[in-house]
Amino acid sequence: MMTLCQIVLKKNIECTELVLQIVLGRDDLKVEKVAIQHQLKNLQGRSIIFYIYATDHAGKRYNVEIQRADRGAGAKRARYHSSLIDANVTEPGEKLENLVETYVIFIAERDVLGKGQPIYHIHRVIKETGENFGDEAYILYVNGAYRDESPIGILMRDFSCTDAKDMKYRTLAERVRYFKEDEKGVAAMCKAMEDMRNEAALTARLEERKRFAIDLLAMGELSYEQIAKLSKLTVEEVRTLDGKRGA
């Protein structure tokens, strides 16, 4: 499901716009710019890559993450994504009251929050009154397993389709048809699949190096610099792993 969905949305304003309109229930939303694999950094230099980072005609920002594994859609990760958007849309001297609305949207293959809802809206509220806090920073989780005849149910069913003729949303169907039937589209699909496999392999190797570094840290005999050299990590990455290990 999600692999094809990721490729279909890649650098395509029309498909991204359709998804945002359905998820947010806003037919008036017009996307002006879409970045794919967009990297943002915090003040300490730690970076994270947003799968889709879109801007609409009003300057509002949207981060859409397509997740096959539940562990990639945790609450703390959503919070971090939201904070990075804020940190990167402000300029020195700009009033914080001018911060734009931001949306972090996780579309997961399963019902991550497990309550049977098609979509979950996480907004800050004042606990004592139930009123909206009004910070205009929103997090949403979409249940990719949801099916019915509502717009979100149809969208999730289309995401699970591998044949364009079985899809109801024409914008998505045409994009799928391009990748599966057009010569250039097929080549682009193969390249995208190869890139995703390479990315997964790099991630697996990085995790293996981290586990190796943690084992060396547990021995307590080597310096951060020595462990970094052996594990092919940076000294800062090793220091961070040590901090998490001792937490």
Helix content: 40-55%
- Count of discrete alpha- or pi-helical segments spanning 4 or more residues: 8
What is the β-strand count? Answer: 6
Distance between the termini: 37 Å
Mean pLDDT comes to: 85
SS strand fraction: 15-25%
- N to C succession of SSEs: HHEEEHEEEHHHHH
| Net shape | globular
What would you call the structural class?
alpha/beta
Poorly predicted runs are none
The main sheet orders its strands as 1-2-3-4-6-5
Whole-number radius of gyration? 20 Å
Described by strand count, sense and barrel closure, the largest sheet is:
6 strands, mixed
Overview of the structural elements:
The chain is an alpha/beta fold. It has eight helices and six strands; from the N terminus they run ααβββαβββααααα. It has helices at residues 2-9, 13-24, 75-89, 151-160, 170-181, 183-219, 224-231, 235-246; strands at residues 31-41, 47-56, 61-67, 102-108, 119-122, 137-143. A six-stranded mixed β-sheet has the order 1-2-3-4-6-5, sandwiched between helices. β2 (47-56) and β3 (61-67) form a beta hairpin. α6 packs antiparallel against α7 (224-231) and α6 crosses α8 (235-246). The longest helix is centred in the C-terminal third of the chain and has 37 residues, at 183-219. The protein is globular, with a radius of gyration of 20 Å. The protein starts with a helix and ends with a helix. The mean pLDDT is 85.
Name some characteristics of this structure:
single chain, 247 residues, alpha/beta, six-stranded mixed β-sheet, 8 helices, 6 strands, globular
Itemize the secondary structure elements and their pairings:
Layout: H1 2-9, H2 13-24, E1 31-41, E2 47-56, E3 61-67, H3 75-89, E4 102-108, E5 119-122, E6 137-143, H4 151-160, H5 170-181, H6 183-219, H7 224-231, H8 235-246
Parallel strand pairs: 3-4, 4-6
Antiparallel strand pairs: 1-2, 2-3, 5-6
